[in-house]
Write a structure and sequence with these properties.
alpha/beta
Length: 260
C-alpha cells in the first residue's frame, strides 16, 4: 500500500515509534528513524528493518530539543527519499511531580520534546508535502491530550498542546491532500511507562505485574494495556485511502479510559 512512499518517524528507535515504523515498513514504506539509544543497537535495528521488509531504512540522530537539528533531520529525509510523505511525531519524555515541586528544567525539556519538536517537524515537512499534493501527519499524543492526571503538569500541557497543533494544521492543509491527526493512546507498556509501574508497585509493596494491574484498574476499563502493534495498525489506517477525509481528529485508543 505504501510502496514508493517515505516516512520520517521521531522517537522511533524503540517503543511506539519503532512499532509504527515496522507497520509502515511492512507496507513498503521507506523509513527515516530518529531517537536515542546505544549506537550499535540502533544500527542493528536499522539494518534488521531494511532486511526484513526490503525497504530503505536510514537513521538521523537529531536532538529534538534543538530546532536547527530538527530542520536538518527533515531536510536529510527529503534528500534521501526525494520527499517526506508521512511524518509521525512520536518523540517524548516524562517526569512526574506535584506542580509546586515540578523542576523547571524538566518542564522545559518536556515542552521542547513533546510539543515544540512537533511544531518544527511540521513546519519544515509541510512544504515538501504540498509539492507532492499528498501527506500524512500523525502526532502521537496521549489520552493525556484529552484528560488530565495528577502530577503530570508538563506532560498533560504538552499533549493538550499537541492535539491543538494537530487541529490547526488540519485546517490549514484541508483540501490539499494532506491530513493531520493525533493518536491518543491509553496505558501502553513501553519504556516511558515502566518507571511509573515500578514506582506504583514499590509504593503498594507488590510485584511489578501487580503494579501494572493496579494502574490499569484505576484508569483503563478494558483492564488490558494497548499494544504497540495496535497503535501501528491505527497509524497505518490513517495513511490509507480510507482515511482521506479523516483530518483534525484526536483518536483515543485507550480501552475506554476517556469514555468514563
Amino acid at each position: 500500500m505504501l510502496k514508493g512512499k517515505s516516512a520520517l518517524i521521531t522517537g522511533s528507535t524503540s517503543g511506539i515509534g519503532l512499532g509504527i515504523a515496522r507497520s509502515l515498513a511492512g507496507q513498503g514504506c521507506d523509513i527515516m528513524l530518529n531517537g536515542l539509544g546505544d549506537p550499535e543497537k540502533i544500527e542493528a535495528t536499522r539494518t534488521a528493518l531494511a532486511a526484513e521488509f526490503g525497504i530503505c531504512a536510514r537513521f538521523h540522530g537529531a536532538d529534538m530539543t534543538c530546532p536547527d537539528q530538527i530542520s536538518a533531520l527533515v531536510e536529510a529525509a527529503a534528500a534521501e527519499f526525494g520527499a517526506i510523505d508521512i511524518l509521525v511525531n512520536c518523540a517524548g519524555i516524562q517526569h512526574t511531580a506535584p506542580v509546586e515541586e515540578f523542576p523547571p528544567d524538566r518542564w522545559a525539556a518536556i515542552i521542547a520534546i513533546n510539543l515544540s519538536s512537533s511544531f518544527y517537524t511540521i513546519h519544515h515537512a509541510v512544504p515538501h508535502m504540498r509539492r507532492r499534493g499528498w501527506g500524512r501527519i500523525i502526532n502521537i499524543a496521549s489520552v493525556h491530550g484529552l484528560v488530565a492526571s495528577a502530577n503530570k503538569a508538563a506532560y498533560v500541557a504538552a499533549k493538550h498542546g499537541l492535539v491543538g497543533l494537530t487541529k490547526v494544521t488540519a485546517l490549514e492543509t484541508a483540501g490539499s491532500g494532506i491530513t493531520s491527526n493525533a493518536i491518543c493512546p491509553g496505558w501502553t507498556r513501553t519504556e516511558l511507562i515502566e518507571p511509573q509501574i515500578i514506582a506504583r508497585a514499590e509504593a503498594l509493596g507488590v510485584d511489578v505485574e501487580e503494579g501494572g494491574r493496579n494502574m490499569l484498574a484505576e484508569k483503563q476499563p478494558s483492564q488490558q494495556f494497548v499494544s504497540i502493534e495496535q497503535l501501528g495498525q491505527l497509524a497505518l489506517f490513517l495513511c490509507s485511502p480510507g482515511a482521506d477525509q479523516i483530518t483534525g481528529t484526536a483518536l483515543p485508543i485507550d480501552g475506554g479510559w476517556t469514555a468514563q
